[in-house]
Design goal:
Layout: H1 5-10, H2 12-46, H3 56-70, H4 74-80, H5 82-89, H6 95-119, H7 123-131, H8 136-170, H9 177-187, H10 192-220
Helix pairs in contact: 2-3, 2-6, 2-8, 2-9, 3-6, 5-6, 6-8, 7-8, 8-9, 8-10, 9-10
Length: 223
Amino acid sequence: MGFDFQHMMELWPDISKAFGETLYMIGVSLAIAIVIGLPLGIVLFVTDKGLFLQNRFVKSVLGFVVNMIRSIPFIILLVALIPLTKMLVDSTIGPAAASVSLSVAAIPFFARIVETSLREIDKGVIEAAVACGATPWMIIKDVLLPEAKAGIVQGITITIISLVAYSAMAGVVGGGGIGDLAIRFGYYRYDNTIMIVTVVILIVLVQILQQLGDWTSKAIDKR
C-alpha cells in the first residue's frame, strides 16, 4: 500500500499527539543536559593539565564516567536504566520515562561538546586573565563562556538533533513520540502512510533545528 492522504487525516490526532510527545522528551532532556552538562564540560576543561584548576583525580574520574556512559549504545542504556526510571517517574513507559534515559545519554554528550568548544579558545586569553588576578569564577564567567558561546550554541544544536534520533529510538520500548508511532503503525501494521509521514516530520524537524542553530551561532559569534 502506498501513501493514503485520507488515512493520514484519520490518524492526524495520533500524529499530532506523537509529535507533541517527541517535543516534550527533547525539551526535558535538553534542559537537563544543559543544566548538568554545561558545568560538567567546564569542569572537564578547567581541571585539565596546565589550566588554572588542574586536578588530575577529578579530571580522570569525571572523564571515565562520561566515556563509560557514551560507550553504551542508547537502546541498551534504555533497558539498563529501567530501575532508575521506575524509581524517578514511577513508570517505565511513556515520554516522561523515556526522558530519563534521554537525559542520561545527553549529559555526557553535551559535556564533551562544551569541553571541545572551550579547547578552541586561545590559551593566551586565559593566561592573561590569570595574570591579571582574576578568580576562577571570573575567568569562567567573563572569559571562557563568552569566548566559547558560538561553539556551545552549535553544540546545543547537535545535541538536539541527536535527541531527535534517540527519542525516535525510545519508541521501540514504548517511550511514546514519533518513534513509537512508526513502530506501532509503520512496522507492526505495515502502514506505509504513517511511516512516510513520520520520516517526513523528522526530516523537516531536523532541518528547521539545524537552520535555527546555525543562524543563532552566527548571530552571536563576534569573532
